[in-house]
Design goal:
UPP_synth-like (chains A, B); homodimer; about 20% strand; Undecaprenyl pyrophosphate synthetase; ditrans,polycis-polyprenyl diphosphate synthase [(2E,6E)-farnesyl diphosphate specific] activity (chains A, B); alpha/beta; 7-stranded mixed β-sheet
Chain lengths: ~210, ~210
């Protein structure tokens, strides 16, 4: 079976999940932490080489404060849990903004935990405009775009999985996503099941990868 | 009904369509011209304000010469047909390369035909790297990315339709696509039907547009 090397994870639907259960929207976010860890274990076991989680974005921080605090805490908790695992971990986002959580600053340089067997990237206060704007400083007429973005340590993505049914990127790593395959799961992220990964990989195995050729 | 203002069109599957009929691959391309014109009429009638066709890319030009010549001719013919309609027409792509067809150079500055009732963009010898690399020349620490790319005259895209079943962007306008919804049609482009558009618009009407918020 042809495995993707790098999976992009868009864990959407936490608020809708909470509302469906009569909870307030912000109560959905911490229900996404265990799914993230389960997915990590499954991918590591399967031999996936790199995982990128879409934590939260600058766009997301415009939401009500109670939500912003809840998704920020969920991201902090998730990164701390991942740092106890066997992974090479990096948090990427705009750290110069007040909404970037100080607790995650130590992770904004890649660190190896355990044997660093799988590369894990976690986007926190990420913005596609912030990411790409650094191309402006490259002073090169034929720039290598992959090298000149803020997220240059994140590889090209083979397969993007999005939970919650929406069929869009919502600003997720536009440069690394130019050739990615997209796989949409209708269930909300807190309802993550291991079978979602297997179904996505079976689908990916049948795709013809051309890189635009 | 909430209509998208700008549709992106990825007309894929011409080669597979030809092969299914025992034709050689390159014979599929000119079967995509009439569908493109039908789609134009339907969108204009519906009141769509802007259409962008994915003609061919720099990546595509690596294909066998017989195919390159066939898709180049199909794009020239399509643009010439569109120039007889009521549209504001622009061809965008890297004109400094030898594979850019000279016949289309007059269209690389936007021209109004008829009343120019609908904005139509046609990507020819397009490359996402070429498009974005011009950000490098902007000399501004906080650049407006939409204004500094080569395709700055193409607006943000609301809905991208791709024929031929593949679920990927294949390098299509990465900046204008960051918030776009994706709608995939399994049928090949030469099998275009007006119902594809209506189905896509009905689907789009039910989506919740957040622009990442």
């Amino acid at each position: 079976m042809r495995l993707p090397e790098h999976l992009g994870i868009i864990p959407d639907g936490n608020r809708r999940w909470a509302q469906d259960r009569g909870m307030s929207k912000e109560q959905g976010y911490d229900k996404g932490i265990n799914p993230g860890l389960s997915l990590f274990y499954t991918c590591k076991e399967l031999g996936i080489k790199e995982l990128t989680y879409y934590g939260f974005t600058k766009d997301n921080t415009k939401r009500p404060t109670v939500q912003r605090l809840a998704f920020t805490k969920a991201c902090i908790d998730a990164v701390k849990l991942l740092s106890k695992e066997d992974a090479s971990l990096l948090v990427i986002g705009n750290t110069s903004s007040a909404v970037f959580p100080k607790e995650l600053l130590p992770y904004t340089k890649r660190q190896t935990f355990g044997n660093g067997s799988i590369k894990v990237n976690f986007l926190v206060n990420y913005s596609w405009e912030w990411d790409i704007s650094s191309i402006c400083e490259c002073n090169d007429t034929k720039p290598d775009l992959y090298k000149n973005i803020h997220s240059s340590d994140i590889s090209r993505i083979d397969l993007i999985l999005r939970w919650g049914g929406r069929r869009r990127l919502s600003g997720f790593l536009p440069i690394q996503s130019v050739y990615s395959d997209f796989y949409i799961i209708d269930e909300y992220w807190p309802d993550y099941k291991e079978s979602h990964i297997h179904d996505a990989l079976n689908w990916y195995n049948k795709q013809d990868i051309t890189l635009g050729g």
